[in-house]
Design brief:
The chain is 64% helix and 11% strand. The protein has 344 residues and is α+β, with helices and mostly antiparallel strands. The protein has a four-stranded antiparallel β-sheet. It is elongated, with a radius of gyration of 28 Å.
Length: 344
Amino acid sequence: MNAKNLKICAGVGLAAVLIGGGAYLYSGTDKGKPEYAVKIAEQAVADHDKENFYRFVDVDGLLNDSYGSLIDGLTDFERVLNDDTKDALKNFTEILKTPLLTSLKAAVDSYVTTGDFNAQNHAGVQELLTRTGLDKIIYRGLDGIDINPANENNATARIRIYQPELSREFILETELSRGENGAWKIVRLKNFQEFVNTLTEVRRSQLDNYLEKAGEIAGRHDATILEAEQQYSKLAAFGALNQDSVRAEVRTLMLDVYKKDWEERKQELFGLSVPKSAETLQNLFLKICDLEINYADDYAKWLDDKRPSTLKIAEDHQRQSQALKSEVSILLRRMAGGERLVEN
């Protein structure tokens, strides 16, 4: 099975196709063994045989059982929610459950029937896959299928998968059940919640690491900017900017200190590893750097040409920067406290 097949089907909880990637390990034809269900499920996908696929895969059960974990993957990788927000989110996700599961099943139908996921026609599906990291899963192998010694009608398939954000393999356990007719069917992902929780912890750690490093960068450069602003206040006091010598000194301060420091800050921010949950914050940081750099350039230009229009352009840049800094403060409070939001 190629990587595209795995990513798509793993994203909607189709364990059948995940373990189907290793079905070639089983060469028997005994219909009474769980391996047979796996083999036929994989073949059904390859043949675009939806009817046969549904005979061996309980798609409705898989999706319904995995729904809570999928939603956790959308909302649970920043900070712990307060009780009121938890209740509100729970009610909201229950409202979404039926239409989202319908879209997920339609996407599965489309893929099994045509080989095309057709995500653009199924609301929320591609976003769910991307934001839960399931679109990046890579199949690594089947470790085996064991029948439960306490219940011969129950079996577990152990699948090795790799998710780049985890940087290690994860064993996904898939449950198969034998019906009254003796046929096995794939019914549940037993530890899917554990997979989501593991990914959540990794993402939280990545976010904390980014915030710490971005904070260190801001702290160092804010100190330089504060010193430059204090020096500017001394130079510009008592109308001294009317003097050409003072204007020249301020111009040097703006270009060689103020602007240079914002440029260095921007380069350091570019060097950070940015988790998806911090992309909005990173973009704000970079936009602020650009506005402050433009402010320094235009203010220095005004010191030369003394035109009110030039000064207005410079001040507009700084006003925009201040507005974005307010947005940054709001985002940082949300990320650091109990008011967790997904910002992408």
